[in-house]
Amino acid sequence: MIIEASASTQAEAALLDLDDARFRALVAEALAAHPSVDVFEQLVSPALERIGRSWEQGDLALAQVYMASRMVERLVEEHVAGAVPSRRAHPPIAMVVLEDHHLLGKRLVLSGLRLAGWAVEDWGVAEDPVALAERAHAQGLDLLLISTLMDRSARRVALVVGRLQELGASTRVVVGGAPFRLNPDLCQEVGAVATATVASAVPELLANLVGAP
Ligand code: B12
């Protein structure tokens, strides 16, 4: 379902004005008419990304991006906390952010997965790719979902995959985040098995990977 672009523009203005009440009212209005995944993908994320672009162009201070993203983050946190408990039976899966502190993508993906009935563990932020691979192997993960927003951390996924291979682990790595959205070849270059550009595509992607109904 398509949400009007003007709603996202209004959300952007509310975020820049630090008007939390207005921002929440706009989101609540959209949530009353659209599935939550559409609201986050079409209304909230584009607003934040436009704010990010204005910062890149030198029109905004990083502090403004930070304050706007804190407002989005609080909303997403509440949303994830309200997600229904999982119902599916599937092999162990965990999700992590590797070496950077852009957490919103992970929160949205986890929220979508939980709403779709997947029990995916949240491993927070991992600083060390080798230790991450060893933990995934020790815990017998089938899938390790890694989110990164910075180019450097995206490239370091190759170190996770390399260590998993050295260990002979059966864990497969799935990646996502801006570097993978912008460069479709990067997923394969770092040795991951799959990626998705939006949170709404992830439940189906996992179902295909684990062969779930
Ligand atoms: C908001 C933001 C911040 C916020 C982060 C708040 C937070 N708690 O997350 C703040 C202000 C703190 C911040 C800080 C910084 N940022 Co910043 N930030 C952004 C911005 C504007 C938006 C990112 C975002 O939240 N998007 C919305 C989310 C929902 O989108 P997403 O993460 O892509 O996730 C979606 C999909 O990718 C997918 N997905 C995500 N993960 C996964 C995982 C899997 C497995 C799958 C299948 C799918 C999937 O599903 C999600 C939902 O649909 C981007 C610009 C951009 N275009 O991305 C820059 C950007 C990521 N930041 C950047 C930089 C440089 C920084 C700083 C270094 C700035 C500085 N000089 O201090 C710091 C570093 C922080 C750190 N150490 O990590 C750069 C990275 C450049 C690069 N090429 O590496 C960017 C690209 C801006 C730029 N062009 O310069 N940032």
Brief account:
58% of the residues lie in helices and 11% in strands. It is an alpha/beta fold and 213 residues long.
Can you describe what's shown?
The protein is of the alpha/beta class and 213 residues long. It contains 11 helices and 5 strands; from the N terminus they run H-H-H-H-E-H-E-H-E-H-H-E-H-H-E-H. The protein has helices spanning 5-16, 20-33, 36-56, 62-81, 104-115, 129-138, 151-155, 157-167, 178-182, 186-189, 202-210, and strands spanning 93-98, 121-126, 143-147, 172-176, 194-195. It has a 5-stranded parallel beta sheet with strand order 2-1-3-4-5, with helices on both faces. Strand 1 (93-98), helix 5 and strand 2 (121-126) form a beta-alpha-beta unit. The two termini are 25 Å apart. The relative contact order is 0.11. Bound molecules: cobalamin (B12).
Q: Which keywords apply here?
A:
213 residues; alpha/beta; 5-stranded parallel β-sheet; 11 helices; 5 strands; 11% strand; globular; binds cobalamin
In spatial order, strands of the major sheet run 2-1-3-4-5
By secondary-structure content and strand pairing, the structural class works out as alpha/beta
The helix-strand sequence is HHHHEHEHEHHEHHEH
Report the strand count: 5
First-residue to last-residue Cα separation = 25 Å
Strand content: 5-15%
The total count of helices amounts to 11
Outline the low-pLDDT stretches: none
- Biggest sheet descriptor: 5 strands, parallel
Task: Give the overall shape.
Answer: globular
Q: So what's the oligomer here?
A: single chain
Give the names of the bound compounds.
cobalamin
